[in-house]
From TrEMBL:
Signal peptide coordinates: none
Annotated catalysed reactions: oxaloacetate + phosphate = phosphoenolpyruvate + hydrogencarbonate
InterPro entries: PEP_COase, PEP_COase_bac/pln-type, PEP_COase_Lys_AS, PEPCASE_His_AS, Pyrv/PenolPyrv_kinase-like_dom
Name of this chain's protein: Phosphoenolpyruvate carboxylase
Top-level EC class: lyase
Subunit (UniProt): Homotetramer.
Keyword Lyase: yes
Length: 873
């Protein structure tokens, strides 16, 4: 049975595909269009299980020239892009407020008091951290065209359009599709960290700037309507931070100069946006009635609101232009720059109160309220920049320093000696760093970053994250570096626990840290801890990592309570299952009880930023999902796991870890298989994000970042890191005597149920037939058995999952998600077979080959498959 979603979305996809077909025909002729259409139909039949069509596709690609393969690859990558745009526009248009509606239905059923609801809303604190380090394959110039296209689709679906208006929009759609077809889809060079930051700012300007006040207005309206409760004027239930330009862990291109440039560019973009808002306000607020407080500020001005706001507009313009001059190497006058959020918020609040006092509530609660809310959420810095660095880099500073001072080598000291040294220096009033010390370049870079933090306002920064933190000294070292560099405010420092061992040791580390009197005084009752999802899953597999993350959070919440500290857990999730990705509601509701009390902080990566926040309506919908899930989890917390659940999940996790590591770490055939069966080596040539694919250029699999690790397996549709070893571990524990408890876990425990729903999603994206086709062509005979064994486990795992859920097919409970994937299937299938052909040709040609058509076609298929799968890493 075809759903309304299926029918309407398919109609839009067909329309866009037909328009792209016309563009291809206009450039290449009818014969080319017929070839592509035949391949598309073959792809559909192949996906539906027609083996003869699969073979025909393979043979078709074998006979094509390199340049023809590039043309086909481009066509199908473009089709997939258009399919995604159609789906985004459809989702944005439908059920924008469904999450908030569902929340209030739930609240109404529970018959909660207004006080309880008000308390939960007051605690609402969502910090979304935009990060580019997971890859975004689509070029910025194409993203702009796609946004325009989505706007046109929104317009063309309006029932009230006249024929003339419809024709005009359809012409614009054809124009944009033609522009995209004639645009190079693969970057010639990697984006710089500054490019990535500018893209993040553009998401705010083009989408979130409108979405945030709309979301807050909707939430406030429903609270008023249902509970006579209001969102306070000083509320900022959502806020935005960024890693773009601040995350230097393993990225040599993020320097202190880059961080300073990004800070200033963020201020410049905020100044531009507030100048526009305030100018519009001062045009509209032409009224003459005002209260005494405003009259005292503006004297006898006939138009008091304009008199107050005009100088503020000029300040923002001076800031915007002054920053441009400074970045261009000039020496601007900074005396008229806007320097604090209060300089913006106080005049706005003065206008707001005056309008209320003078009976103009409707005016006060219009554009002015939207601007107040933007000021609270974004502020004059637009977002807050996090800084991230590896603990080893901080230790290197002190090693070099102690050797210079003749104190020995800090790196060789015991943890107790390190702590004693750091605490002594933190309490000292004399400088630690000698004026004449000629430090190495790497050490200077760490110190220069701390000096940038000291030079700029604390309101422009989020938190300082330490990768690979394993001891209290890792945290104290950063605090000493900040103090010695002149940072005179307590910047929050968050250890990042990433590997399985780090997660398991995290409670011990935090207990030791919070037991230090000096440290508790420094944090002033507020502690951040970052939980790493990507590296723990890469280290131990999805199930063991998930349970370790849960247990560490649970223990950290208890320790924070013991020391009377408010704990904010920062979730370093990626978009994919293998990197901790989950639908937002499931991810939040499966957290341990109490883990949201200190707020919810989470990374939003590369392409998921675009899928969740790329259009104002999508962004408003995503914010509503986050808010409703967090309020619901605070008011109706999930149950703490029973002891028997803990015993079984612990056994499952240990078995899952051993299963995963037996393949990935201990089987000597795994690495050779991985190298030939996936395009892992070719991925390194794709100019994606600014970070290198490996932390250590000469390292092997262990040094490969979690992102290309996931990306490589997604390309072949084996999506191995997300499921390997999991169902076999569950089956090993699900004995007849345990079956009742396992079923109880599934029905009553959101954490366990979410693990299985994740697998459900993964298995729908997996396709053993595609993986087999890669092996058949690319894997040598002596390794073929390895892929066969993995696919055998994949098929067993799918059967095991269905036995637990009681469903007869994957994604039974998410028909919309299932249809979404199937709509793209006809375009994805040919790209896989095309990529296999290209990989074979490239590898046979060897390193000497300079065939640009082949290389470019390879990049196009990698990007196209990522787009079709809706994720890279």
């Amino acid at each position: 049975m075809q759903t309304h979603y299926d029918a309407e979305l398919k109609d839009t996809v067909r329309y866009l595909g037909k328009t792209l077909g016309e563009t291809i025909k206009n450039q290449l002729g009818q014969e080319w269009l017929d070839r592509i259409e035949k391949i598309r139909k073959g792809g559909r039949a192949s996906y539906q299980g027609d083996a003869a069509c699969s073979e025909e596709l393979k043979e078709t690609f074998k006979t094509m020239s390199d340049s023809d393969l590039l043309t086909v690859g481009r066509a199908f990558a473009q089709f997939l892009n258009l399919g995604n745009i159609a789906e985004q526009e459809y989702n944005a248009a439908m059920n924008v407020d469904a999450s908030i509606d569902a929340l209030f239905k739930h609240l109404d059923k529970a018959e909660l008091t207004a006080d309880k609801v008000q308390d939960a809303v007051a605690k609402l604190n969502i910090d979304l951290v935009l990060t580019a380090h997971p890859t975004e394959v689509t070029r910025r110039t194409l993203i702009h065209k796609h946004k325009e296209l989505a706007d046109c689709l929104q317009a063309v679906h309006q029932a009230s359009l006249s024929d003339v208006e419809r024709k005009k929009i359809e012409t614009r759609i054809a124009d944009l599709i033609a522009q995209a077809w004639h645009t190079e889809e693969i970057r010639s060079v990697r984006p710089t960290p500054v490019d990535e930051a500018r893209w993040g700012f553009s998401v705010i300007e083009n989408s979130l700037w409108e979405a945030v006040p709309d979301f807050m207005r909707e939430l406030d309206g429903r609270l008023n309507e249902d509970y006579d409760v209001s969102l306070p004027l000083d509320a900022s239930p959502v806020q935005f931070s960024s890693w773009m330009g601040g995350d230097r862990d393993g990225n040599p291109f993020v320097t202190s100069k880059v961080t300073e440039q990004v800070l200033l560019l963020a201020r410049k973009r905020a100044a531009k946006l507030f100048a526009i808002d305030l100018d519009r306000l001062q045009v509209e607020l032409s009224m003459y009635d005002c209260n005494e407080e405003l009259r005292e500020k503006v004297g006898d001005a006939i138009e008091p609101y304009r008199a107050l706001l005009r100088p503020l507009v000029n300040k923002f313009i001076a800031t915007r232009d002054g920053i441009s001059d400074y970045l261009a190497g000039k020496n601007p006058d900074t005396s008229n720059w806007i320097e604090s959020d209060d300089e913006l918020i106080e005049p706005l609040m003065l206008c707001y109160q005056s309008l209320l006092d003078c009976g103009m509530q409707v005016v006060a609660n219009g554009l002015l309220l939207d601007t107040i809310r933007r000021a609270r959420v974004f502020g004059i810095h637009l977002l807050r920049l996090d800084v991230r660095q590896d603990s080893e880099r901080h230790a290197d500073v002190f090693s070099e320093l102690t050797r210079y001072l003749g104190l020995g080598d800090y790196a060789q000291w015991s943890e107790a000696d390190k702590q004693a040294f750091l605490l002594r220096e933190l309490g000292s009033k004399r400088p630690l760093f000698p004026a004449q010390w000629d430090a190495s370049d790497d050490v200077k870079e760490v110190l220069d970053t701390c000096k940038v933090i000291a030079k700029h306002s604390k309101h422009g920064f989020g938190i300082y994250i330490i990768s690979m933190a394993s001891e209290p000294s890792d945290v104290l070292a950063v605090q000493l570096l900040l103090q010695e560099s002149g940072v005179d405010w307590p910047m929050p420092v968050a250890p990042l626990f990433e590997t399985l061992d780090d997660l398991n040791n995290s409670p011990d580390v935090m207990r030791k840290l919070l037991s230090i009197d000096w440290y508790r005084g420094y944090v002033k009752g507020r502690q951040f801890v970052m939980i790493g999802y990507s590296d723990s899953a890469k280290d131990a597999g999805a199930l063991a990592a998930g349970w370790a993350q849960y247990q560490s959070q649970e223990a950290l919440v208890a320790i924070a309570d013991e020391f009377d500290v408010s704990l904010t857990l920062f979730h370093g999730r990626g978009g994919t299952i293998g990197r901790g990705g989950l639908p937002a509601h499931a991810a939040i509701y499966s957290q341990p009880p109490g883990s949201l009390d200190g707020g919810f902080r989470v990374t939003e990566q590369g392409e998921t930023i675009r899928y969740k926040f790329g259009m104002p309506k999508l962004a408003k919908r995503s914010l509503g999902i986050y808010a409703s899930a967090i309020i619901e989890a605070m008011l109706f917390p999930p149950p703490a796991p029973k002891e028997e659940w803990r015993e079984l999940i612990t056994a499952m996790a240990a078995q899952g870890r051993d299963n995963y590591r037996a393949t990935v770490r201990h089987d000597e055939e795994f690495v050779p298989y991985f190298r030939v069966a996936t395009p892992e080596q070719e991925l390194g040539k794709l100019p994606l994000g600014s970070r290198p694919a490996k932390r250590k250029p000469q390292g092997g699999i262990e040094s490969l970042r979690a992102i290309p690790w996931i990306f490589a397996w997604a390309q072949t549709r084996l999506v191995l890191p997300s499921w390997l070893g999991v169902m076999r571990a569950i089956d090993s524990v699900k004995t007849p005597e345990n079956e009742k408890v396992v079923n109880e876990m599934f029905s009553e425990w959101p954490f366990y149920r979410s693990r299985l729903s994740m697998l459900d999603m993964v298995f729908h994206k997996a396709d053993p037939r595609i993986s087999e086709a890669y092996d058949e062509r690319l894997v040598p005979k002596e390794l073929k058995h390895f892929g066969e064994a993995l696919r055998s486990e994949l098929k067993e795992s799918i059967s095991s999952l269905l036995a637990i859920t009681g469903d007869d097919d994957i994604m039974k409970n998410d028909p919309q998600g299932k249809e979404s994937m199937e709509i793209r299937a006809a375009y994805l299938q040919p790209l896989h077979y095309l990529q296999i052909e290209l990989l074979d040709r490239i590898r046979k040609a060897g390193d000497e080959s300079q065939n640009t058509s082949l290389e470019r076609a390879m990049m196009v298929t990698i990007a196209g498959i990522a787009i079709g799968m809706r994720n890279t890493g």
